[in-house]
Design a protein that fits this description.
Helix content: 40-55%
Distance between the termini: 22 Å
Structural class: alpha/beta
Mean pLDDT: 93
Number of helices: 13
Largest sheet: 5 strands, mixed
Amino acid sequence: MDYVIGVDAGATKTSACGFSLDGGLLVRHCGGPGNFVEDPTGAERNLLGAVKRCLEDLGNGCRLVAAGAAGMRSSGLSEEIRKKLERAANCQAKVMDDGMLALYANLGQREGILVIAGTGSVVYGRSKRGQVSTGGWGYLLDDRGSGAAIAIHCLKYMVRSCDEGCLVSLMGRDILKELGCGDIWQLPRAVSHADKTRIAALAPIVAEHAAKGDENARGILTQAGGELADMACQAAGRLGLAAPLTGVSGSVFEKNPLVVQAFWKRMKACLPGAVPCPTYERAEKGALWFYQEIKHT
């Protein structure tokens, strides 16, 4: 049986899927995180392990492995990983950042942009001018609109309110409880010992209080949506797209209607012709598009 394998390796997990050449999902295996900047050794182990489990299940017939992994572009390891995948699968392999694989999965050969907002955030786009990305620098530099950014915005609001002599809000109390803090003075130590994933996990608390009407929480989510739209407009401008086909994905969009609303309000103000992508495909399915591209070259 002929098939392809697509791998989506991100900050929290690695997912490898085997697809028949007509797009049917044959098998899926998941493993640990796949961020090649934060833990290249672990990311490589998880990525190769998930692919090998797919190969064990499906046997001979793999025609392509396409792997998208967080931090791959800046890791300097893409060529090394590509060769290891080709040896393991005995076929051609392509290696790229996770967002680029998701772009192909959702837009195929069409021009447009894909905005991804989960633990981190990044925008990928493609036009006749080429391919670009905006964001994706990591939460310490610039992951605007991401789960981590939402949580950090809330944490900053908490300490600044304390400086102004305000009592800790209900949202703030839930944040402190989640971090195991007895009071706000324990917050700096808790945050200093938390990694990006732990910080981003606080974002649902902001969403919960926004749904209950907390204006500060609503403001944080509205700002996140606007910032994600700003990134998208920057990418569209660099690509020369006045009416880009625009896809959105990731937990921040999936779980926060306010973010979605603010995103499209800012997008339409900046690019009135922007067209929402009607469907969303999982990133691993981008392997099928790469296979078709190779097949016809």
